[in-house]
UniProtKB/TrEMBL annotation:
It comes from the Bacteria. Residues 1-25 are annotated as: Disordered. PROSITE patterns: STAS. SUPFAM superfamilies: SpoIIaa-like (SSF52091). Signal peptide: none annotated. InterPro entries: MlaB-like_STAS (IPR058548), STAS_dom (IPR002645), STAS_dom_sf (IPR036513). Pfam families: STAS_2. Residues 294-381 form the STAS domain. This is STAS domain-containing protein. It comes from Denitromonas halophila.
Amino acid sequence: MEEGILVGSSHKNKSAGAASKGPRSELSTLDFGSAGGDVARALAECAGKIEVQEGGDAFAGVAEDAAVLYANGQNDLAAQVLSEFVTGLTPGQGEPVWLMLIDLYKLTGKRAEFDERVIAYARSFEKSPPPWDVADAPVAAGKTAAPAVALGTALTDQVAKQFERVREAAKKNGAVKIDLSRLRSADESGCTLLRTLMSDLNAASVNIRLSGASTVANMLRGQVLAGRRENQQMWLLLLDMLQQTDDIDTFEEVALDYAITFEESPPSWEPKAVSEMASTTAELVTAVQMDDGFVLEGDVLGTNAEPVRQLAAFAAERSRVDVDCARLRRIDFVSAGAMFNVLAQLQGQGKLIVLKDVNAMVAALLRVMGIDQVARLQLRN
């Protein structure tokens, strides 16, 4: 299925030795974040850098046009380009373009158009078409993604203003994602602020999705000392984090040290709270704590592509990273450019990045950007 979309993946007139030297220098030197993310200028600059394999010009050109239109939010125009092209094909031709159109209808919630096209697809290719996947449907009107906060390396009083914004947004939305995986140090003030934030949100019945609890627990255990009566909030945050990791043995050990140190009863183990938190944090824990996995989901847009930076940080100490893209709906041109630069650097460091279960619309843009030359690209079945 993948060989039909040929933009950016050709190695025509290149020896195997040349191909093994890594990404093309022309693309890796482009600055996709300059001039405020001027997509038109970047496209013009990029146009001369992309190879199109002979024999695939028609398919490649349509795939490229539709991918860039979709990346820029021009869904109807992208659908028009794809629809007009597949209508003129003979049976059995252009399956990758058909799959792009079908995926586009799913991603934009066009159920009637989807149903019409999958019937035509089945007739053309004499096999079962892709199903309508609820996970691909657009977010219902009026609903927004939960606000997210990714803390830096230090938990200090410097996070106070950030937490105020998080508190306000989380209470308005009813849910929040908090990523603690990059924390490397904390002081008493920072621990107090985080515990107060979580207490306030729990009291307001906000659904907290937490990642990195085990990272924080390990860090805090190196900063507290049994018998030294100081940093009580740090001790309490340690116990909070151990609750989230469902590590009751370590929790009881630390709780005993706390009782001896402060001569008071420690917080009790609350299995129900841990169960609820575990069920809501599964997706984030997968993204930051698995040995070889990372998750990209939703829409990755604009020059401030935090998920791309998180991927770079996640891959820093790993030789291979499997990136789950099953719920990645869209990535725009600027963010894809930033991703290319990051992946090119990682490839140069000898790392293998595998983008898995990518939908056909996103995959086409990634090929346009040459990302398939610096990472392994696997389309969704």
